[in-house]
Write a structure and sequence with these properties.
Elements: H1 2-16, E1 18-22, H2 28-37, E2 43-46, H3 49-58, E3 63-66, H4 74-78, E4 83-88, H5 106-109, H6 113-120, E5 127-130, E6 142-145, E7 148-151, H7 158-167, H8 176-185, H9 192-195
Helix pairs in contact: 7-8
Length: 196
């Protein structure tokens, strides 16, 4: 009887909670989420017009936002409803082995910081998923070489570890990742928002 009650509890909560797909492309992740949960994704976000157009065709019951993920206000788009699942598929090409020794961009490498924005928000998702390549674990500061930016091998993984710590136990203001997170989230390092 206990297992049945638990199953009903989770089903009822899932029906009341929103499912949000950030960096929604054509809808592959949304299809997987729908297959796993038995219902469509409620909100899909992507800055790219073509991606949103394709997602709309594949997911007609989803509310779509063609917007930069950092420009989205989680409380506003959810209308105060709880979020059960927040899915994030930030661009992985600047971490992938396939990228090789090519220069990288800080802006693209920092897309994962938006996850912290959702985690810190009032909607505080119950489950947060991040889809990426395993090399995301090497996410660290960049250094300039001959006028181009490359990952600093001496600091490999530093930013990733700070990112995970911010989502779990927290970090000190002195940690190098703290300043980067504040920069991407456009919050002052000495603000109350940064303290949370």
């Amino acid at each position: 009887m206990m297992k049945l009650n638990q199953k009903m509890y989770y089903q009822d909560n899932l029906l009341n909670e929103l499912i949000v797909d950030n960096f929604a492309g054509g809808g592959g992740a949304s299809i997987g989420i729908e297959l796993a949960t038995g219902r469509p994704v409620d909100i899909a976000i992507n800055h790219d017009e073509d991606a949103i157009a394709m997602h709309k065709v594949n997911h007609p019951f989803t509310t779509h936002y063609q917007e930069d993920v950092f420009a989205i206000d989680p409380e506003e788009v959810t209308n105060g409803r709880p979020v059960g699942i927040a899915w994030f598929s930030p661009d992985c090409k600047h971490f992938s082995k396939a990228k090789g020794g090519a220069p990288v961009e800080k802006k693209i490498r920092g897309l994962s910081w938006v996850i912290l924005k959702w985690a810190m928000s009032e909607v505080s998702p119950r489950c947060i998923f991040m889809e990426n390549v395993e090399e995301i674990q090497t996410w660290g500061p960049l250094k300039e070489i001959n006028g181009k930016m490359y990952p600093d091998p001496a600091r490999s993984g530093e930013t990733f570890k700070g990112f995970v710590a911010m989502l779990t136990d927290g970090i000190s203001k002195e940690h190098p990742s703290f300043a980067e997170a504040c920069e991407f989230l456009k919050i002052a390092p000495d603000s109350a928002e940064a303290e949370s």
